[in-house]
Amino acid sequence: MEILEGLWNTHVYSHGMRVNLLGIPRPWKHNRQHSKKSIHNTIYRLHKKGLIDIKLGKWIINKAGKEYFENKNRLSIKFSSPFKLNSPKNLLLMFDIPEQKKSERNWLRSHLQIFQYIMVQKSVWVGPSPLPNKFVAHTKKIGLNPYIKTFKLSRPYQPNKII
Predict the structure, then answer these.
(1) Residue-wise pLDDT tens for the chain (163 aa)?
(2) Number of folded domains in the chain?
(3) N or C: less crowded end of the chain, CB within 10 Å?
């Protein structure tokens, strides 16, 4: 129960909304009736997904659950842009991330926007370089590196210029 309470009471922001580590929106202050029902529904969903088990009458997070919550934690990390406004766009970044890593792909896209990258196609972006070392290390940590390729451009990208 302590683990669930910890997950329930730790808040992060996802897509501009305050949520707990279980992904449940938490826009309200303290509504006990609503919270108890939400906790019950959350426990039911976690059990149905195979993330928690019942042992000796207690809810226990299993191995799959620990991996799920560790992954959620890794994707809650936000990086700020080290680039000045309108920095030259001289790095081409392409990726082909499988559907099983959809949340990681969305995390990458959101950070490319933060870093002032321009989307040329859904998986082709151009922006300033070099990418921050901590960001690159984190993409390795969450397993995205095999799916990402970067190319340094010989001159800055100009979106409206016809060659």
Answers:
(1) 777 777 777 777 666 667 777 777 766 555 555 567 777 888 888 889 898 898 888 888 899 988 888 888 888 888 889 999 889 999 999 999 999 999 899 999 999 999 999 999 999 999 999 999 999 999 999 999 999 999 999 988 887 766 5
(2) 2
(3) C
Cα–Cα distance, 22 to 12 (Å, whole number): 10
Report yes or no on 134 lying in a domain.
yes
Give the three-state DSSP class for 25: strand
SS3 74: helix
CB 101 within 8 A of CB 144: yes
Q: Closest by alpha carbon to 111, among 125, 99, 96?
A: 125
DSSP secondary structure string, 85-115?
A: TT----EEEEE---GGGHHHHHHHHHHHHHT
Report which residue type is found at 109. Answer: R
Q: Backbone dihedral region of 93: left (phi > 0), alpha (psi from -120 to 50 degrees) or beta?
A: beta
Which residues, listed in sequence order, are joined to residue 52 by a DSSP beta bridge? 61
What is the CATH classification number for the domain harbouring 14? 1.10.10
